[in-house]
Structure formats: C-alpha cells, structure tokens
Amino acid sequence: MDGHPGILVAMDEVKVVVAHSERATLRVGEVFLKVDADQARIDVEVEAMALAPVPTPEVLWRKPPVLAIAAVPGTALGRLGEPSTASPAAWATAGAAIRKLHDAPLPSWPGRAGRGLDELAADLDGECGRLVTNGVLPADLVTRNRQVADAALRPWTPVFTHGDLQITHVFVDGDEITGIIDWSEAGQGDALYDLATLTLGHEEHLGDVVVGYGADVDLDVIRAWWSLRSLLAVRWLVEHGFDPFAPGCEVDVLRSRM
C-alpha cells in the first residue's frame, strides 16, 4: 500500500468460471487454472488435447491437482438458454471440426460418450424413477422423453469423441474455430453424442452443423440424445447449484419433445 492504487487495478482479477464439489476452473488474466481431485481426468485432458487434430488450448504447466492452460482467442459459439450470435457458417465450421476429430485415429481409452448401452439404460431408468418419485419433473414429461431417448440406445461405431462438447467449449473468431476446450471426458464414443451435445437447446442450428459435418446422420438419434442427456442432467444440475429450469435449458429441451 504505497499510495499507488492504480497498481492494484492493473492486477489480473481471479474469476471463478465454474465450481462444484468435483472440480473448479478459475481464470486469471489469460490463464485458466483447472483444479480437479480426480487426476485421471486431468491425464485424459492433456493426452486428448495432444492427439486431437483440431485447435486446442496450450498447456502451460501442470502440478496436481492443478492444470494451467492458456486462454484461446475468440468467443464461445453460444450459451445454453441464450440465442447464439454466431453465424450459420460458424456453426457449419464447428460441424466440420467435429468431423475431423471423429475421423482421427482412436484414442486408447473409452470416453464419456462411450458408455456401455446396458449401463446407460440402467442409469437412465433409475434416474427417471428418481425424477418422478422426488417430484422433480412431471411423470408424463419423463415418460415421453424416456421413450424418445430409447433411440440413442443402439449399436454404434466408436470414434474419437470430445465427450462434453457444449457450445461454451467451442470458440470462434468470425467463421473460424479458434479452439475447443475442456477435454476431460474425451475418448472413444458415439459420434452422435458429440453432435447432440453441441446442439442441445439450439435445434435451429442442427442443420448448419450437419452441413459442416458432411455426412448422413440420424436426426432422430440426435434428438434422442437431447432427451437422454437432459434426463440424466436435471437432478445433478439442481443439486450443484445450476438451473436446468431456466428458459431454453434442459427442462425446456425435454418439454420440446412433448
């Protein structure tokens, strides 16, 4: 405190990007600090970014349980619950980047998008029961979306998936992809899981993504993943301080299937 308060103003702020009982991400200037008690997730993130043939953040250093990565330029493709300001061309470019990832050599490990069908069906049925029993969602809403979700439970050919490809994890500058972040759920998985995660709550851009992806995809399976992902997420989000009932978010996604 030497009488120069401007020095304090010039210092980088510490911003909490996301924080819950499993992990936290902080931003300090142009550096993101990811704190994760599960070292395996950090290991996956670093290895996946090294293998992925798409723009990823630079790893600056790691000292468990912290991983430091550089911020990527540009802005997020959008946010769940808000209209995306990105152009249709940017969404198509995102689709092309996903296709490039899916065509890359497989990593050696299964990812979040690669869970076994029997395990996934059991988790889904159990979660649907809890949503109704605990009064979180109406029974008719859960029953209808459980029916829709069934289309996702089919055989698939494994590809290199991101596993958590939310639109806030894809950064663009104009119509160009500048970086894809948060790779801790990456690994072998179902290609349509990634496409569904990216377009969750932004169905109006699904066509743009598919055009960029450049391959025939089963839109019913993507819609099934929307229902499945939302059903599994609602209670977790509520318990961790997030609001899946906000306009345009997971509960509205479920309602759109009625």
Automatic annotation (TrEMBL):
InterPro entries: AGP_Transferase, Aminoglycoside_PTrfase, Kinase-like_dom_sf
Classification via Pfam families: APH
Source species, domain of life: Bacteria
Any one GO MF annotation of this record: transferase activity
Keywords: Transferase
Gene3D superfamilies to which the protein is assigned, alphabetical: 3.90.1200.10
Residue ranges occupied by any Aminoglycoside phosphotransferase domain in the UniProt entry: 51-214
Protein name listed in UniProt: Aminoglycoside phosphotransferase
